[in-house]
Amino acid sequence: MKSEADRALSLAASLGENTAARDAFAARDRDGLQAMLGPVFKELKDRHGVRQLQFHLAPATSFLRVHRPEKFGDDLSSFRFTVVEVNRTQKPVFGIENGVEGLGIRGVVPVFKDQKPIGSVEIGLSIDQFFFDRLKTATGADVALYVNSPKGLTVHAKTFANDPPVAPETLATALQGTTQIGTAA
Predict the structure, then answer these.
(1) Cβ of 104: how many Cβ atoms within 10 Å?
(2) Which residue ranges of the chain lie beneath pLDDT 50?
(3) Which of 69, 122, 133, 140 could form a cystine bridge with 108, CB 3.0-4.6 A?
(4) Could you tell me if 146 and 154 are in contact, meaning their C-beta atoms sit under 8 angstroms apart?
(5) The pTM is what?
């Protein structure tokens, strides 16, 4: 996961340092930024599995979702803590967060114009079935990710053919904050 986070940060940094993109963002030219980065996003999606590319205004207002340009202006500060942190500290941050587009590995970097902060840019890589299938191919290991939902712990994605063999008491202990690591029988 660290390598995926590093990849997300690198891609975000390259966009945040792009002079034309930075100038359009500084001018708050949403349409110009979308026209410029729409084709870039398609390439990043097709070649690198990028699921989202988003620019934010401080502290955490969506300025442009290149992957979904019709949705903007919403306040993300109550659940997108990486965005808040980047705009507070002006330092790159990565993390796993659940957002409007789902669970993902986020790389968020500050964007500067004339050495002044103008917001942030984010690359999001989904933690989805595609991600877990790639992980199994790379490692040979079967894995599952449980997420806490209103229904309790549910399987978000898995590479096991059937439900992962995890005892209910193990899941209950995990919910209490104790790390659980085991092997399948």
Answers:
(1) 24
(2) none
(3) 122
(4) yes
(5) 0.80
